[in-house]
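Memo to structure team: turn this sequence into structure tokens by end of day. - J.P.
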Amino acid sequence: MIIDANVYLGTWALRQVSGGSGAEALEMMGRYHIDKAFVSSMRGVMYRNPQEANRELMDDIRGCEDRLIPFAVINPAYPGWEDDFEDCFEASGFKGVKIHPGYHGYRITDDFIRPFFKLIAGKGLPVSYSARMEEGVEHWALRGLINPTGAEIDELLNELPDLRLLITDLIGFDEIFKHLSPRDNLYVDISHVRRGDELETLCRRFEPERLLFGTGYPFRYPDSPMIALDYAHLELGVREGILGFNALKFMSE
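Reply from structure team:
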């Protein structure tokens, strides 16, 4: 089984990104023999209140929820996020939370954000945390983006050991791993990995049982993590875990 833990649907405000519909994602998944994917809205990243984008996502994937697993983009810095949260998880059928602190203007250790993470941990929902959608500064409006740090991730998980957290889109953030403590409830996707030796290094730094296959589609091509897996010297069980079984554990713990 292959599960892509990092797929975006919709449109991107700063440039044209092709392949952002549910149908196009399914076509890509067929070409690469991917069985399921965690999907979230790229439009919601640039909305102060992402709820409209979440509704558009659910309309797009209707009837395909068995393969396209929806993650709701929630902005806890937006007043009224609690209503959006209730709508997504009590009525709309979302399976996880996607957060973009850098784009929504908060740090995960900010005091006013704590109730959000405590609610998620209490409900046992998985959280996917995107470090940055694209590498580098691609637009003047994004020059003030808040970058993640390993120290603040550690601080959050020390306080909330029941919170399941997946870090995605780590292109350009290798420094994070030097200050990040491996733990049972912390996962990392490999969408930023481009070569087999990079994946081998990541397996040595981090527990391979906590690595998830991810593409970052449609911002990035699926080929890079696929090639990295093909060329990395990994035991069969480790490879199969990264491709899918680790993602199942992330969703079910």
